[in-house]
Specification:
- This protein has 178 residues and is an alpha+beta fold.
- The protein folds into two domains: 101 residues, no CATH class; 54 residues, no CATH class.
- It contains eight helices and five strands, in the order H-E-E-H-H-E-H-H-E-E-H-H-H.
- The strands form two sheets. The chain has a three-stranded antiparallel sheet with strand order 3-5-4.
- A hairpin with a 2-residue loop joins strand 4 and strand 5.
- Helix 2 packs antiparallel against helix 3 and helix 6 crosses helix 8.
- The longest helix is centred in the last third of the chain and has 21 residues.
- The two termini are 40 Å apart.
- It comes from Tricholaema leucomelas.
- Belongs to the STK19 family.
- InterPro entries: STK19-like.
- Keywords: Kinase, Transferase.
- GO terms for molecular function: kinase activity.
Length: 178
């Protein structure tokens, strides 16, 4: 019989302990955040601003009760948020526009990270693409000075590229590749 137990991720989502966020790096690239640190980060970003009230209300009602990646206009209205409220939530960075009448849940300031991350990915892939045979020993790649655009560090970006299967790792007799 099939395993009917929920995965740990789905269980945490059902309990309202984690949220999935669309990162804007591709249609299937998602981030996973714990709800409490997410809530603290968002509130810290809007503390002392005129948007704080609407953001707090949105976190307490919509985010706490709806585990979806995005919100439709009807959902937002059902939670008691009008067009001006949505405009404030977008300006605060809590929502980003998905398409007309639909918004992704977001993290304020995430755009800076995503831009740096994308630049780092492109820079590291460019280094490998320009190398002979499109291969670079891992040890050499980690020892090199990071290419311009890789502010997050070669190791961080390299782990992402390997995990996303945009790069392949092959073991060789070179001890630096272990």
């Amino acid at each position: 019989p099939p395993n009917l137990l929920p995965s740990p991720q789905n269980q945490l989502r059902a309990e309202g302990r984690i949220r999935l966020l669309h990162l804007g790096l591709g249609p299937d690239v998602l981030g996973v955040v714990f709800l409490e640190p997410y809530r603290e980060k968002v509130l810290a970003a809007v503390a002392g601003t005129p948007r704080e009230g609407v953001v707090r209300r949105f976190l307490d009602s919509a985010v706490a009760s709806c585990p979806d990646l995005s919100f439709q206009q009807g959902q937002v209205q059902a939670f008691g948020f009008g067009d001006s409220d949505v405009t404030q939530l977008v300006a605060a960075g809590v929502l980003t526009v998905r398409d007309a009448g639909s918004w992704w849940l977001a993290v304020p300031g995430l755009g800076r990270f995503v831009r740096a991350f994308g630049r780092g990915r492109r820079a590291l892939l460019g280094v490998i693409r320009r190398s002979r045979h499109r291969e670079v020993p891992l040890g050499e790649l980690l020892e090199r000075r990071p290419p311009p655009g890789a502010q997050l560090g070669v190791g961080y970006i390299l782990h992402d590229l390997l995990g996303a299967q945009l790069l392949c790792r092959y073991l060789t007799s070179d001890p630096s590749d272990l």
